[in-house]
Amino acid sequence: MCEPVSIAMAGLQAATTIAGGFASAQEGRYQAKLARMQGLQDLKVAAANAERARYSADRGTASLRVKMFTSGVDPNSESAVATIAEDRGNRYLDELTTFYQGRVQQWEQEVKAIDANRRGKQALYTSLLSAGGSDDPYVLLRTA
User: Fold this and answer.
1) pLDDT digits (tens, 9 = 90+) for 115-136
2) For the segment 41-61, what is each residue's pLDDT rounded down to a tens digit?
3) Which residues contact 112 (CB under 8 A, 6 or more apart)?
4) Which of 15, 53, 91, 116 could be a cystine partner for 32, CB 3.0 to 4.6 Å?
5) In whole angstroms, how far apart are CA 68 and each of 8, 85, 137?
6) Both ends of the chain: CA-CA distance in Å?
7) Of 29, 21, 48, 44, nearest to 122 (Cα)?
């Protein structure tokens, strides 16, 4: 009489373990999705900041050009053109750095997403193995 109850309890325990594994896997997928969404948001913010830096650089370069030409510098002189080009190049670097930082943040979020997926799958596999009565994945191969 005790045997059916213990079998039922073992079945209930196995079902609970597997359900916990599925819940952990689902949570891992959810966390991965959130991380990817955050990475996309980080990239969009970085792109907007880069656009703002580009606009600021254009205005700064235009201001320099006006200062040079209103001070009597020949606009066709090599030194004026070189100075303006160097200034614009330095300002362009800020734009690229801002955008690059956004790409790095997106990559970091993708790494977090991959890790969350991996942890969720690992929890599911562990629950399946535990429900089967062993934490050793090779136990079935050795007994066969």
Assistant:
1) 988 888 888 888 877 776 655 5
2) 999 999 999 999 889 888 888
3) 31, 32, 35
4) 116
5) 89, 13, 75
6) 32
7) 21
Q: How far apart are CA 50 and CA 57, in angstroms?
A: 10
Chain segment 12-45, per-residue pLDDT in tens: 777 777 777 888 888 888 989 999 999 999 999 9
- Contact by Cβ (8 Å): 39, 108: yes
Residue labelled with tokens 């790095």? 104
Q: Do the beta carbons of residue 115 and residue 29 sit within 8 Å?
A: no
Whole-angstrom distance, CA of residue 25 vs CA of residue 32: 11
Residue 38: CA atoms inside 13 Å, Cβ hemisphere, count? 15
DSSP 1: -
Contact 113, 32 (CB under 8 A): yes
